[in-house]
Amino acid sequence: MDSRRAGGLRERGQALVETTIAVMIAFTLIFGIVDFGRAIYAYDVVASAARVGSRYAIVHGSACTITTVCPATAATIKAYVLTQVTGVTASTLAVTTTWAAAPGCTLSPYQGAQCLVKVQVQYPFNFVLPFHKTITMTAISEMIISQ
107 lies in which domain range? Predict the structure, then answer.
């Protein structure tokens, strides 16, 4: 075999290996950016869900006049939150609602005006890339009941 020809084959083989490594690194970087973008979006949905749940609770306090959904309960808040989320698997959201006393709040079970409601939403996020299997995203929103 001609020595010039053998050197050309080696260079082509080397270029193939270098191209393969560069493409793998580029695809990993691109898919990583997309995956972390998905994670940021999912966290935004979780935070928004907590805020929507607490807003629902403060409007549907014990003095609310809409008879079918007043006062808000943990079950009605969870049902409402699950109808408001998009872009994540709603069935995997964990929605926890608690009420507490606050200045001006005197009525137990603390679902009246001036009482504090806290809605916590948790979501198990799965990465596509094998960096992490699952992380639990948590958001909490607290507001004072208006009525």
Answer: 3-144
**Angle subtended at Cα 109 by Cα 50 and Cα 73, rounded to the nearest 5 degrees:** 45
If one compares 33 and 8, the residue with the highest pLDDT of the two is 33
Q: How many domains does the chain have?
A: 1
- 12 in helix, strand or coil? helix
pTM over 0.85: no
The string of pLDDT tens digits covering residues 64-103 is: 777 677 788 899 999 999 999 988 988 899 999 998 888 8
pLDDT of residue 8: 57
Is cis: bond before 109, omega within 30 of 0? Answer: yes
- Can you read off the two tokens belonging to residue 82? 């699950």
**Is residue 12 very low, low, confident or very high in pLDDT (cuts 50, 70, 90)?**
low
Beta-strand ranges (E) seen in 10-133 are 94-100, 116-126
How many secondary structure helices (H) and strands (E) does the chain include? Answer: 2, 3
Whole-angstrom Cα distance, residue 41 to residue 49?
A: 12
In the block, which residue shows the tokens 């808040």?
A: 77
Contacts of residue 32, defined as CB under 8 A and 6 or more positions apart, other chains included, come to 129, 131
